[in-house]
Amino acid sequence: MERKANRLQRLPEMLLDIILLGVMWTLTSLGVVTVGAATAALNESMRAAMVEEEKKPLPIFFQAFRAHFGLATKVWLLHLIAIAVLTLDILYYSAGDSVQDTLAMTVMCVLATMLAFEMAVVFACIVQYRPATVRACFAKAFDFAFRCFWDSLQLLCITAAVLLSGLFLFHGILPFAAGIIACAHWKLLPRIFQKAHFKKPQKQK
Fold first, then answer.
1. How far is 136 from 152, CA to CA, in rounded Å?
2. Please, what is the angle between helix 2-28 and helix 35-50, to 10°?
3. Tell me, what's the pLDDT at 78?
4. Left, alpha or beta for 104 (phi > 0: left; psi -120 to 50: alpha)?
5. Across the chain, how many H-helices and E-strands are there?
6. Which residue, among 183, 78, 49, 68, has the nearest Cα to 125 in the 3D structure?
7. CB count, 10 Å around CB of 106?
8. Is 205 helix (H, G, I), strand (E, B) or coil?
9. Burial of 101 (0-12, 13-18, 19+ CB in 10 A)
10. Chain segment 115-168, per-residue pLDDT in tens
């Protein structure tokens, strides 16, 4: 009962964190190149708010932005290139009507689906597992995404649902949609990481 009362008391703080961190992610992502660092920082600060019940996650956002900038930016730029190549390939092969075009289109769609699964968890893995290299980051993200397939699918569905709701139903949530997504993800991620037997994170200094 007391735990439920504490959760109710934290609800206004949580809503404020979602809005502030979501808007901060939007502002720090305007440069496009900084999307990776901003997403890693959002995950770090939202984890602090949701899991560690940190009452001031905004300073953690800026600390994490600097701490994860190098690795997260490299990871994001590689994703950006992959998204561009897959999009162009899908558009190209969708215009054809041969069997080869259909097979190539199928392969591209499978690769795009695999990338979507990996992207749903890669920045959370950076925060949780703290890989030292880009290669280690991708290895852990793909391992996590497919070892915990149904959990990853759930995270992907949450992301899609929030974005589609913002685009087609509630336009007002778009500026802080990233905060809503991160909050929903970190409601589930501690259990999923525990199931995946990932190491416990070290606290951000």
1. 19
2. 170
3. 92
4. alpha
5. 7, 0
6. 68
7. 11
8. coil
9. middle
10. 877 887 899 999 989 998 999 998 888 888 888 888 888 988 888 898 889 888
Q: How many residues does the chain have?
A: 205
Contact 131, 125 (CB under 8 A): yes
CA separation for the pair 53, 175 (Å, rounded): 24
- The pTM score is 0.83
Name which residue leads in pLDDT, 13 or 37: 37
Residue 9 has pLDDT above 70, yes or no: no
Residue 204 has pLDDT above 70, yes or no: no
> Rounded distance, CA 173 to CA 177, Å?
6
Mean pLDDT value across residues 81-95: 86
For 108-165, give the DSSP string.
Answer: HHHHHHHHHHHHHHHHHHHHHH--SSHHHHHHHHHHHHHHTHHHHHHHHHHHHHHHHH
CA distance 181 to 194: 20
Residue with tokens 């690795």: 71
